[in-house]
Amino acid sequence: MKRPSMARRLTLTLGLIVSLVMLAMGWAFQHTLETTLHELDRVELVSRAELLRQKIEQARARDPYLTALGGELDTLLLGHGRLRMWLLDASGQPLHGGPGKPELVETDQPDGQCQVRRDDGVLMQALRLPLPMPMPHASGLDLSLNPRDGVGLGVGEIVVALDGRPREALLAGHLRQLLGLGLAGLLATVLLGGLASWRGLRPLRRLARASAALAPTAQGQRLPERHGDPGLDALAQAFNGVLERREAAYRQLETFNADVAHELRTPLATLINGGQVMLAGTRSTEELREALGTQLEVLEELGGLVKDMLFLARADRGDRVQAAQAQPLSLERELSHCTDFVEALADAARVRLRITVDPALQAAGAPPLHANPALLQRALCNLLSNGIAHSAPGSEVLLRARWRAGPGPLGRLRLDVLNPGTPPPEALRARMFHRFVRGDAARSQREGYGLGLAIVQAVAHMHGGVVFAEAEAQGLSVGLEWPLHDMQMDA
Predict the structure, then answer these.
(1) 298-349 residue pLDDT tens
(2) Distance CA 55, CA 132 (A)
(3) In 390-447, which ranges are continuous DSSP H helix?
(4) What is the phi/psi pair of residue 401, to 5°?
(5) Which helix (H) or strand (E) holds 362?
(6) Which of the chain's ends, N or C, has fewer CB atoms near its CB within 10 Å?
(7) Are 399 and 335 in contact (CB under 8 A)?
(8) Which N-terminal stretch is annotated as signal sequence (predicted)?
(9) Do 193 and 8 contact (CB within 8 A), yes or no?
């Protein structure tokens, strides 16, 4: 089933919210009106009952036998078609108001409130009040009070009732008006809300069309970043950032492919030419052995290149050193192992090696070093080999381990090699950790494949650290650092 569009969902949501709000407000208004009308009827009943009591007291003062009371009670009802009155004796029989006894309903309500059921079954809101004094004997009453001969009359009560049908009709009409207005308001809200949603989402539709118009192979295409809405502007800027990173990744991939092809071309050509020469004529066993040895050396170099590329591919994939791979290591012992490994290379280049360790890393309670020992030695040996290769004979290459304050409770470990001499230009320092970069050496010279510092960078990233190449007064400092507290990672 196709999901509704955003504009339709917004319109339906707005309509639902308005419906609920209008329903709640209509119910509250109808309930308030009903309560108000009911209270008005009650006030009228109370006022009429009090007026009736006053009439009885006044009539009693003028005539103890109340001979004219019936006519005065009938006068009170003139112009009040909704109003009915009964005057009852002590036994509940009607003295005035009709021949039949009124049927009282719900007489247990407070303040004398009750209901009266008429002969036609209509319920009327009523009020019961006691008479202010005993009524005279039946022989002394006016005939209009319908006395019953032989019955002694004591204190009775007054019953005043009000027909509620006009009120109910008013409430029903008001409810119909509320429903009609609510339906009209809902329709208007849906129509206007749909129009507002459609107009409000026009920038988003323009953004979608601009995104669809981007060609997969086009370089430098970007979405417009000004749409009059901060949210859409941020979305366009984030999308443009993704495009820039994608293009940078494509450029890096193209450069990487070109560099790999360039690096593989020379050894493959050497293998092909050597094989063709050997097959061109009859060769002795010694010549064939020498040719195979040369080709084996070239193949071993290619094998090393493939291993380095696979290692860098793992680092690009985001591999990190896990807790099971990180071990607590002795910093001085690891540095000594690395210098011992490259000692022969340093002797051949007539370069001296020296190690310095920050006292903060040697003191009691110094932050521990957790790292993958094989990766750490590989990175340090690459740094030392690079420093030896770019140092003049008779110079000294310094391997340093320093502690520096930084994010985290234990600070950061900084491992670097200081190459004496004039530092290279800043543009070259910015590219030193790129793949297949060999400094100022020509590509035709066989000084490795230019992956050593790229591997150092990969090792730093796998330990959660960074690399650096900084110019100092004594020369060029090239190394890596990582936060000490980040070395014990989750498996």
Answers:
(1) 788 777 777 777 777 776 666 666 654 567 788 888 899 999 989 999 999 9
(2) 11
(3) 426-431
(4) -125, 115
(5) none
(6) N
(7) yes
(8) none
(9) no
Beta carbons of 397 and 387 less than 8 angstroms apart? yes
Does this model's pTM top 0.70?
Answer: no
Rounded to 5 degrees, φ, ψ at 46 are -65, -45
Pairing mode, strands 369-371 and 412-420: unpaired
Percent of the chain as helix, strand, coil, to the nearest 5: 55, 15, 30
Residue identified by tokens 């109910």 is: 168
Tokens at residue 143, please? 């005939």
Distance between CA atoms of 161 and 82, rounded to whole angstroms?
8
Let me know the angle formed at the C-alpha of 275 by 269 and 281, rounded to the nearest 5 degrees.
135
pLDDT exceeds 70 at position 64: no
pLDDT confidence tier of residue 150, bands split at 50, 70 and 90 = very low
Contacts of 287 (CB under 8 A, 6+ apart): 278
Give residue for tokens 């008006």.
Answer: 177
- What's at 22, amino acid-wise? M
Region of 209 on the Ramachandran plot (φ > 0 left; ψ -120 to 50 alpha; else beta): alpha
Q: Is the model's pLDDT at 147 over the cut of 70?
A: no
In tens, the pLDDT along 84-142 reads 888 877 777 777 776 677 888 877 777 788 888 877 777 888 888 887 555 554 444 44
The alpha-helical segments, DSSP class H, found in 132-229 are 165-200, 202-212
Joined together, the tokens standing for residue 447 give 């000084």
The pLDDT of residue 13 is 85
Residue 111 and residue 128 in contact, taking contact as beta carbons nearer than 8 Å: no
N-terminal to C-terminal alpha carbon distance within the chain: 43
